[in-house]
Design goal:
Layout (H helix, E strand, L loop, with lengths): L1 E10 L8 E7 L4 H12 L7 E8 L2 E6 L31 E6 L6 E12 L9 E2 L32 H15 L8 H24 L1
């Protein structure tokens, strides 16, 4: 059977708007499959570790998954979620929810996972988990904030003063113009110096002949 899940982003460092997604998950899916589907639903880049817990809210942790795991004490091995069935922790009508926590350099992102109560047979030809984009509510949150998010499209967002390509080209130009120690060299001055050396050498030769 296929289970339709409601995924709500309830907390995050750059969460400004409502963000609700719907994912169709098969019976045999594991928690790592669900992780990838949530990342895909909000276009995050899967750069940081993650973990799950169950509870009434994202501030009231009931039980970490797997049992005995504590994210503040233990190193997170996310491969363990490949062996944990997702639907064991998602029940329709349950007071507790499954929470997915995607860690970041600042505050973590918290997603509440709930069963909508809808179950149906898989559609032939479809691949699951399946993100139902047409049911999405609200824009994707900006994973890195304004001006740093890969998917930000607002022209008013902050942009870095230099871009990598431009910076590299400028750096090469500066090296050519300033030389090794940062001083400018004038081609005319170099030519004058060479002419002076030639005159000096000729004068020495004339003195030797007269002697």
């Amino acid at each position: 059977m296929i289970h339709r899940l409601r995924i709500t982003c309830v907390s995050g460092p750059w969460l400004d708007d409502e963000c609700v997604r719907f994912i169709d998950l098969p019976d045999g899916a594991n928690l790592y499959d669900l992780h990838l589907a949530i990342q895909d639903s909000v276009l995050f880049d899967d750069e940081y570790p993650f973990y799950y817990f169950t509870g009434i809210s994202h501030r009231a942790t009931g039980r970490f998954i797997p049992d005995g795991f504590d994210p503040e004490l233990d190193e997170i091995d996310t491969d363990v979620y490949e062996d944990i069935a997702a639907m064991d922790y998602i029940q329709a009508g349950s007071k507790e929810s499954l929470f997915y926590v995607f860690m970041s350099e600042g505050d973590d992102w918290h997603f509440r996972i709930q069963h909508t109560g809808k179950k149906f047979k898989p559609v032939q030809g479809e691949e699951y988990p399946l993100v139902q984009d047409q049911l999405a509510q609200g824009p994707n949150p900006e994973q890195y904030g304004s001006g740093f998010d890969d998917f930000a499209e607002d022209d008013d967002h902050f942009k870095p003063m230099r871009r990598g390509g431009d910076f590299d080209r400028d750096g090469e130009d500066d090296e050519e113009e300033d030389g090794i120690f940062g001083f400018g060299f004038d081609d005319d001055e170099d030519n004058e110096s060479e002419e002076y050396d030639d005159d000096y050498d000729r004068d020495d030769d004339d003195d030797e002949l007269r002697d």
